[in-house]
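Q: Got a minute? One more chain.
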Amino acid sequence: MSSQKFVSAREIEALIAQGQPIVIHEGYALQLDEWINRHPGGKLAILHMVGRDATDEINIYHGAKALLMMKKHRMGRVQEPWTNLNPPIRSPDYYTNLAAEKQGVPSAEARRSRRNPADSRCKAAAILNKKLSTTGTCTRRTSALISPDPEKQPLVPAVDTAADKVTARVKYATEMEQKEILEGLGDNPSVDAETQRAIIMDYRALHQQIKDDGLYKCHYSNYFKESLRYSFLFGLFLYLLYAKWYLTSAIVLGAFWQQIMFTAHDAGHRGITGNFVADTLIGAFIADFCCGLSIGWWKSSHNVHHLITNMPEHDPDLQNIPLFSTSPTYMKSVLSSFYNFTFVWDAAAEFLVPYQKYTYYPVMALARFNLYALSWLHLVSPRAAQLGAAWWTRPVEIAFMMCYWAIFGYALVWCYLPSWPIRIGFVLISHMFTMLLHVQITLSHWGMPTADLGPTESFPQRQLRTTMDVDCPAWLDWLHGGLQFQAVHHLFPRVPRHNLRQAQSLVRDFCEKTQIRYQCYGFVEGNHVVLGRLEEVAKMVNTLVDCQLYMAETGESGLH
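A: Always. Here it is, folded:
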């Protein structure tokens, strides 16, 4: 099909409804059915862009060679400006439809398309309007939702049965979502097409300036200095271990893990050499061999996280029920498009979430054990094999991780350490020290908004709205390892981290021009922001539970 042929929006909608992964890029429709299962970044990254103008997302994630290759997937030009559709994977019945199609049964969406191709753009607007409506209650009354006085709760109906309880919970969570959407619309530039288009053009000009200033160039002298620090920490660990200062050596090993993973993060984004094979091997050696964590698992979830940041149903970095909830959305129970798993809001969540402000740091101290499990679950899953030309990464990772456990688990912990108390202490101390890394990772997003402002919100505005930077002096950059520039990094993920401080000043100017708020806090203040958000959601849960108990006891509807 000629790439100069004009393809109408209705044609694209009909093809998408039939399962075709079509993405808009620089005014062209890309038909990616031949490529999606060979995409090194995983198929989910593409599926979340289906029907959307992904020009900015594609351009910041790919080098010149990959962008040139995409031209062969063009099926024709589209009318610009393109109005984004809602990707099918973001529909709650996506996996149900997919299973039906595998059995030869057309999905409901495909059947509707054959009768009359749906105008998904109008549908998306209707969904947003529905979210912004108050469903029969005036906006001023939503402030009563977090009041501890159950008699002031007008939004939760009487609870007589288990079904009533679920209905009440869903209604309450929806009201909380609507309140946050209204706050998001009020605190940020308008999401109308004209305003967002202007922001996009300014963002593209900023991207060009980043390239012109040479900020994509990696200065390897910085990694030489990094290597000296890693070598010193590892050497000190070995010395203390040989001197039989076992528990002290465990602290240093934890510091080594925390520091060296910054370079694995760079490699995962191809921010070191820019070459997929070289950076993948660097990342696998550090993450899998040195730390026992799968770089493939990290990339599969991290790529999606970057594209749909802080979307509760889709961003795997937020999906931690029943331990944590950073959004009222989870009170409705959500199907994760990443895991194809429903995170059910149950009694465990109602018990644990109210205490999440207090369990945050203890859980972060033990989070590394969960990462071990997620790493192995990824490597034995089909997702690890669906990487096309990058098929070789799976056996390489398995080999490296087996080496890690042979050296750390068997040779060191089992054979070298002299007793069970020391073994247990060594493992716990070394793993707990990496809590700093886990706090650094969650700090930039867990305290930020999760509201969806609709399909018209631009990529740069969403990234800046849902991400915070950490303010610190330049001499302390080594401790944070680039993770203190998460907002800048989310705008330009392939920029080497040693250039992010220079890019930060350009991003500040961009935010001042576009009136998008640049959120930057000191490390301590940032922790308060995260704890404040955890406490806010906990209060929502307490209010819901207290109100349901009150109405169950009194039989009152709460509609005063």
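A: Residues 113-154 have pLDDT under 50 and may be disordered.
Q: Perfect, thanks.
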